[in-house]
């Protein structure tokens, strides 16, 4: 079967998931049943089909599994958001999806030869860092709340909320892939001092810069999760480029020391760590600020799920008789807890498997790519996606301190959807070029 | 570079395995511990969404129901309020507190019992609980309250009586009336931490305590029924056995008198009960001995928590009470101190350290009325689910054959004499052959030196013994059981029997 037909068939599971999911929510909450909601579902499927046709025309050789996997995730996310937050937010999420598809198409059209991105790499890296610290620029801070639960991750322009870190992660990957394409040889070899290979300092500079960026995120944005996501993604590129485990070890130690120092000196990060270590301490659970209420309730919700979950619509989201959230931010940061509650261990593991498949296809594209820049960029993009999933799911499941990054394509939120569509567009571009039959 | 990419992918896979492992930890391996964590309120929240079943009186009156509140939760309403509060108790899901029948039948009322049978029963049970059918009679209960609240019912002071009324069907153990003063409004139980909010006002006792079940009072001469049952059923005496009724006698080294120090000369046991002669009964108890008295007390239910469908911590067992340790002492007692020494003679006339609940005395009189057979007291008959199916039923249960039926018949005749000719004449209603026993126990002395008594009456209609009543009124100046408790008991019997006809 030809690649594009495989992709088309790959959309069938997404369609089934969407239909079954909406039907399940309808049955659970018969009050919500309306033709309008069904129309949203149909429109959403239509959009997936349009995306497929666009790829069929513009990227005929690209990996046939990436887009269907994304569609499955997005459809699943739409059903969950519809169930958690209702029709209005689901419609908004669908609108973000449309915008995301346009950005996807725009990226594919504009960067057909994505290697020209390399020419702008310094512009991109500076732009990304500036972009990231925007939430600390006076006037752009959120009007209602200067911090998103203590971390600075959002800017407000008019009525639109925007998470710049989602976009910055792509820019940093592009920069590093491009930089290491030129310098990886020098980095990998270096000079031998006391039997140990030390890369020349001038080449190491930009790598040290990465560490600086990660620490910057901690200091300015107060967000250990985003910091870990960036750093992990970028370290992945360094490892693949140099194939030197020592870089990774040194990098992780440096990050650990820096994060420990800053974590103990920045109250917000410290309280996140305390809530992670002692979520069931009553004084922390009931604390006014820096409370472990969210993380502990997330764990209680997961405990309800068991192997198979309570079923769609069964998780308790608000304290009965009030509008107080039982699991705060259940449609964004905590969505994994709700998924586990309602679909159980098997449902949650299936979701993680879909992410892993998507990451695997991303790495596959990297392996097939013929030039170093493409390889490194595809590696970095796939790795950062995987680490983002690890950071948020790990936070919800108490593997690491909880921080507010989104679950790609599933969490509610425009920035996340749009940025990740750009990411997927770049992966497909790499893949299309790599799998294009060479004309002799 | 491809080999490095493969290795990197292996690392990512490892990270995902960690995620799945931790998810399994919370969903499966530690799930029970998480659900039992005191901070986990999910089960409580789920119970808020359950529409608890109704509690329905025997005459169909609704005693407790759930009404919808905003946000999909339910509020518990008690249409009869303070009339049934002591017995029904309350259930406050939001506070997570409950009492009385609401607590004892919590599983049934919140539907857990029927949810267990269902494969699809998700946590928190069914959304609708089962209805509980009670043995209580709302009209008779209202009469009990009216009689206790009537000005002058307990002496010259026009304040309402402190006390309790219990009425049991002797043959089935069904509790038809259980009312005690002071009471409270179970629609708002939290407010009754303050005594000033007790009903009726004012009362200086905590009013959340159901005096009928948890209150312990000296039973006075009503306890002579137990002594008589032991004397007759053991075969040592008959109703015609004769005794000296002279006053005073020396018991445990101290003189004991009859009321007004009256000497009766030679009397039969029937006469001794009729006139409630202390100087007969105290030596009688001594001659029966500790073991025999204890045996019969146990048969009647003393020294154990009543087998009633009610939270055990809201009931008291009856018996000799060590005031220091608040523990029961069995005759003859260890007698290591003044407080745990049993004065068997005085115990046999209902004095000494006897501390008895109104329910216990109702059980004693019901046993006599039911030809010597004690039935377990019951507050509920059945549990019915939303579809009208009986989920659970509570048939009558025999507790013990306390005495031979023939002995019970002799005791019944003696008790009829009490009402016809003796201390209980104010219970002698025309058309109702009431048999009974009075009790008067001096309890306290007011600041002005006025002695106070607990007034008791226990009785039943001998011609048609389908109801047995115990009335206890606390702290009345010169509070003779025959003067204050007997008329109330007679009114209760009359009304309960009229309802049945």
Task: Record the SSE blueprint.
The complex is a heterodimer of chains A (440) and B (501).
Chain A: H1 3-28, H2 35-58, H3 66-85, H4 87-110, H5 121-133, E1 155-157, E2 160-162, H6 164-189, E3 191-193, E4 196-198, H7 201-221, H8 224-242, H9 245-265, H10 267-277, H11 282-285, H12 293-305, H13 335-368, H14 372-396, H15 414-435
Antiparallel strand pairs in A: 1-2, 3-4
Helix pairs in contact in A: 1-2, 1-3, 2-3, 2-4, 3-4, 3-13, 4-15, 5-6, 6-8, 6-14, 6-15, 7-8, 7-9, 8-9, 8-14, 9-10, 12-13, 13-14, 13-15, 14-15
Chain B: H1 2-29, H2 31-36, H3 42-48, E1 55-56, E2 62-68, E3 74-77, H4 82-88, E4 90-92, E5 97-99, H5 100-104, H6 106-109, H7 112-116, E6 131-134, H8 138-149, E7 163-168, E8 175-181, H9 211-214, H10 224-233, E9 242-244, E10 249-251, E11 254-256, E12 266-268, H11 269-274, H12 278-288, H13 290-300, E13 319-322, E14 327-329, H14 344-348, E15 354-355, H15 358-369, E16 373-375, E17 380-384, E18 390-393, E19 398-401, H16 405-421, E20 434-445, E21 451-461, E22 468-477, H17 481-500
Parallel strand pairs in B: 1-6
Antiparallel strand pairs in B: 1-2, 2-3, 4-5, 6-17, 7-8, 7-22, 9-12, 10-11, 13-14, 13-15, 16-19, 17-18, 20-21, 21-22
Structural notes for this entry:
The complex is a heterodimer of chains A (440) and B (501). The model of chain A is unreliable at 143-148 (pLDDT under 50). Chain A is globular and about 70 Å long. Chain A starts with a helix and ends in a 5-residue tail after the last helix. Helix content of chain A is 69%, strand content 3%. In chain A, the strands form two sheets. A two-stranded antiparallel sheet of chain A has the order 1-2. In chain A, α1 runs antiparallel to α2, α5 (121-133) packs across α6 (164-189) and α6 (164-189) packs parallel to α8 (224-242). Chain A has one domain (3-435). In chain A, 51% of the residues are buried. Chain A is mainly alpha-helical and 440 residues long. Chain B is of the alpha+beta class and 501 residues long. Chain B has two domains: 42-120, Penicillin-binding protein 2a (Domain 2) (Alpha-Beta Complex), CATH 3.90.1310.10; 138-500, Beta-lactamase, CATH 3.40.710. Chain B has helices at residues 2-29, 31-36, 42-48, 82-88, 100-104, 106-109, 112-116, 138-149, 211-214, 224-233, 269-274, 278-288, 290-300, 344-348, 358-369, 405-421, 481-500; strands at residues 55-56, 62-68, 74-77, 90-92, 97-99, 131-134, 163-168, 175-181, 242-244, 249-251, 254-256, 266-268, 319-322, 327-329, 354-355, 373-375, 380-384, 390-393, 398-401, 434-445, 451-461, 468-477. In chain B, a hairpin with a 2-residue loop joins β10 (249-251) and β11. In chain B, α10 packs across α13 (290-300). The longest helix of chain B is centred in the first third of the chain and has 28 residues, at 2-29. Classes of the chains: A mainly alpha (440), B alpha+beta (501).
């Amino acid at each position: 079967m030809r690649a594009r037909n495989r992709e088309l068939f790959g959309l069938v599971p997404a369609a089934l998931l969407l239909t079954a999911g909406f039907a399940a929510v309808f049955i659970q909450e018969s009050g919500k049943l309306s033709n309008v909601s069904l129309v949203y579902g149909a429109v959403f499927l239509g959009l997936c089909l349009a995306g497929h046709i666009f790829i069929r025309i513009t990227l005929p050789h690209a990996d046939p599994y990436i887009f269907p996997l994304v569609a499955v995730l997005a459809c699943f996310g739409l059903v969950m958001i519809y169930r958690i937050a209702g029709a209005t937010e689901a419609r908004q999420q669908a609108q973000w999806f449309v915008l995301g598809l346009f950005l996807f198409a725009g990226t594919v059209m504009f960067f057909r030869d994505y290697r020209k991105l390399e020419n702008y790499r310094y512009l991109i890296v500076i732009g990304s860092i500036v972009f990231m610290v925007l939430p600390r620029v006076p006037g752009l801070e959120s009007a209602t709340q200067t911090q998103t639960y203590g971390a600075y991750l959002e800017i407000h322009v008019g009525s639109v909320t925007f998470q710049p870190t989602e976009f910055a992660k792509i820019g940093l990957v592009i920069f590093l892939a491009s930089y290491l394409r030129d310098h990886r040889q020098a980095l990998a070899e270096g000079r031998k001092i006391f039997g140990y290979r030390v890369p020349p300092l001038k080449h190491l500079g930009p790598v040290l810069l990465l560490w600086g960026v990660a620490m910057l995120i901690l200091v300015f944005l107060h967000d250990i999760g985003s910091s870990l996501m960036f750093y992990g993604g970028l370290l992945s590129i360094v490892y693949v480029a140099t194939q030197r485990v020592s870089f990774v070890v040194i990098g992780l130690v440096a990050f650990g020391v820096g994060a420990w120092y800053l974590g103990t000196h920045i109250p917000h990060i410290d309280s996140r760590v305390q809530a992670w270590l002692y979520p069931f301490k009553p004084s922390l659970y009931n604390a006014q600020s820096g409370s472990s209420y969210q993380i502990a309730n997330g764990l209680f919700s997961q405990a309800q799920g068991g192997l198979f979950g309570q079923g769609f619509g069964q998780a308790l989201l608000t304290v009965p008789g009030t509008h107080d959230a039982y699991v705060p931010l259940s449609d964004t940061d905590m969505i994994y807890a709700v998924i586990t509650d309602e679909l159980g261990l098997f449902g949650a593991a299936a979701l993680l498997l879909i992410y892993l498949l998507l990451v695997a296809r991303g790495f596959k594209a990297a392996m097939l790519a013929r030039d170093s820049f493409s390889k490194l960029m595809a590696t970095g993009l796939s790795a950062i996606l995987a680490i983002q999933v690890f950071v948020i799911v790990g936070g919800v499941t108490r593997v690491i301190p909880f921080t507010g990054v989104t679950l790609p394509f599933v969490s509610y939120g425009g920035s996340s959807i749009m940025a990740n569509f750009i990411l997927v567009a770049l992966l497909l571009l790499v893949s299309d070029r790599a799998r294009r039959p060479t004309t002799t | 570079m491809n080999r490095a990419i493969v290795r990197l992918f292996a690392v990512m896979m490892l990270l995902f395995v960690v995620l799945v492992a931790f998810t399994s930890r919370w969903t499966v391996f530690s799930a029970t511990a998480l659900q039992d964590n005191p901070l986990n309120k999910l089960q409580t929240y789920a119970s808020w969404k359950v529409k608890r079943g109704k509690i329905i009186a025997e005459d169909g009156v609704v005693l407790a129901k759930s009404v919808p509140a905003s946000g999909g939760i339910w509020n518990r309403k008690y249409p009869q309020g303070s009339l049934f509060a002591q017995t029904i108790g309350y259930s406050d899901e939001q506070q997570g507190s409950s009492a009385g029948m609401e607590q004892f039948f919590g599983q049934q009322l919140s539907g857990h019992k029927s949810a267990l049978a269902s494969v699809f029963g998700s946590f928190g049970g069914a959304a609708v609980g089962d209805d509980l059918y009670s043995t209580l009679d709302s009209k008779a209960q209202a009469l009990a309250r009216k009689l206790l609240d009537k000005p002058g019912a307990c002496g010259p002071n026009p304040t309402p009586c402190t006390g309790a009324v219990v009425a049991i069907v002797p043959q089935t153990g069904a509790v038809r009336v259980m009312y005690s003063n002071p009471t409270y409004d179970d629609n708002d139980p939290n407010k009754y931490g303050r005594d000033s909010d007790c009903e009726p006002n004012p009362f200086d006792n905590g009013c959340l305590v159901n005096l009928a079940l948890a209150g312990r009072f000296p039973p006075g001469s009503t306890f002579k029924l137990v002594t008589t049952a032991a004397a007759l059923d053991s075969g040592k005496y008959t109703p015609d056995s004769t005794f000296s009724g002279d006053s005073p006698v020396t018991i445990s080294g101290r003189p004991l008198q009859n009321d007004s120090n009256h000497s009766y000369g030679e009397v039969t046991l029937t006469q001794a009960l009729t006139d409630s002669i202390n100087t007969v009964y105290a030596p009688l108890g001594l001659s029966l001995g500790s073991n025999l008295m204890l045996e019969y007390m146990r048969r009647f239910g003393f020294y154990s928590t009543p087998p009633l469908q009610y939270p055990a911590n809201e009931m008291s067992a009856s018996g000799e009470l060590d005031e220091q340790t608040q523990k029961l002492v069995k005759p003859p007692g260890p007698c290591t101190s003044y407080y745990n020494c049993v004065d068997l003679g005085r115990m046999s006339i209902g004095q000494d350290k006897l501390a008895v609940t109104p329910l216990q005395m109702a059980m004693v009189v019901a046993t006599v009325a039911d030809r010597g057979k004690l039935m377990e007291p019951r507050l509920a008959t059945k549990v019915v689910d939303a579809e009208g199916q009986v989920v659970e039923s509570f048939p009558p249960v025999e507790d013990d054959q306390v005495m031979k039926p023939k002995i019970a018949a002799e005791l019944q005749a003696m008790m009829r004499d009490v009402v016809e000719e003796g201390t209980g004449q104010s219970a002698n209603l025309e058309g109702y052959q009431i048999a009974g026993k009075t009790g008067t126990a001096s309890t306290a002395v007011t600041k002005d030196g006025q002695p106070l008594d607990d007034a008791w009456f226990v009785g039943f209609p001998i011609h048609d013994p389908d109801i047995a009543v115990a009335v206890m009124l606390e702290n009345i100046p010169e509070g003779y059981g025959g003067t204050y408790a007997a008329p109330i008991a007679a009114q209760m019997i009359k009304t309960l029997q009229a309802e049945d006809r």
